[in-house]
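tool_call: predict_structure(chain=1)
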Amino acid sequence: MSQGHEPTTLLNALDQRLGAAAAALAIPVSDEREPSTEPGSAAGTLLPLLIGACRRAAGTDVSWLVMTAIAGAFPRPEEVRTFRRQLELRPDHELCAALLADAVEHPVRGRLDLEMDVYPGGVVVNVDFCARHDIHTGIHRVVRETLPRWRAAHSIVATANIDEYSALRTLAPRELNRVFAFGVDDTVDPAEERAYRARLVVPWRGVLVIPEIPDPAFSPYLAALAEFSGTEVAVIGYDMIPVISADLRPHVDAVRFGIYLTVVKHAARVAGISISATTEFSGFAHAVTAQGLPGPAVLEVLLPGDVPPPLARSAPGERSKRPRILCVGSHEPHKNHPTVLHAAERLWRSGLDFELEFIGGPGWRSDEFLSSIARARRRGRPVRNRGRVVDDELWQAYRDASFTVFLSVHEGFGLPVVESLGCGTPVVTGDYGSLSEIADGGGCLAVDPRDDDAVTGAIRTLLTEPATLGRLREEAIRRPVRRWDEYATELWDVLAVRGGAT
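tool_result:
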């Protein structure tokens, strides 16, 4: 018995998985005798045929598929290499016995009780984090805006990970809502939820799109999939902050991101979200040629900046009589919030009257930021931290602000900048990297985010020069808006079309 399941359940699941692999390989099963319904009998017939197919195959994709079917999990790179060597050295009966014994002896690696579906030539998308969690910030917004548009126009299979993080599975009803109807429909039929039974999803000779940063535990299995399965792996390249600006992130982030890069180096394509991010990933793609690898093709697919229309105000007089400055972003060192607070304190001491509002969730070392907010409030400063808010509150906050400040010292894109501009609200932002790319389109004052005097001066300008603020507001309103529909279409063409982006 394994994983708490009866042997009959495990044998029936093994029969089905091997049958699915045989069907994908178009292996004819000819047996004049009446097929047995005894659990495991199909496996006894199919496994030697599948091993034979592995021996005949010129590449590794057949071996990868067969190993997945046996173990109920994707193999890791070293397991594929070992199996390929054993194909040369061991007879069929020994190899079959060894594979089955390994699966049974290491059941926690996969799900021996689950059946599987193979998707030859299909597009599979892994959205594990968005499916499991209600957090809705930058990356999650990209996923939840893109996936519904893809599903409306194309055939895709959205997946999460099994809890062992060694294979993909179908989404449960509540997870489907989180990905495809987030903030729109959170109702789930309890009967459907109870009836849900996961099935393994196996991309093969198709495309696996990874629009999130995968859990490090899954990366070795993804790396083997990218290298050996015949499936093209395609990812969105958000940024390389954990390695390029490692001093601004917890050390574990660099380790986790390094593990992720073992997948990226075998990927077929990367869609960078800005020129800056594309440059970062292009540098990495070039670097892996030192390992004799071609590296992924890296193309820019610029994130959009459209926002929903304003809601009717629920009550008059909500806008403060004094200027309100908004700063959106998680409370972490690379977001550079201490610089904003310092500039605000200098301006308050100079006699300027304005409010400062932060929106964003906690992050690494957020305690320091929260302590600074508390000290400022004890001094009577009009500053508050609203934490995370729902989307409608966020859009209203952008529109209520006189201007926003986003001075991250390293950013893959800078979604709060384009969101603010999309609401017609000017921004004080950085003068290099992806933030400079956005600022060049108008509506912004761009300064060095590491220069206290420059930051203070830019904020002072927008507080004291109505003409400048008005000009930037007009520039923000006139900016052409890139829509999510455009982004989703272009991203599909770059990532999901097999052999694309070359």
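agent: The mean pLDDT is 92. Proceeding to next step.
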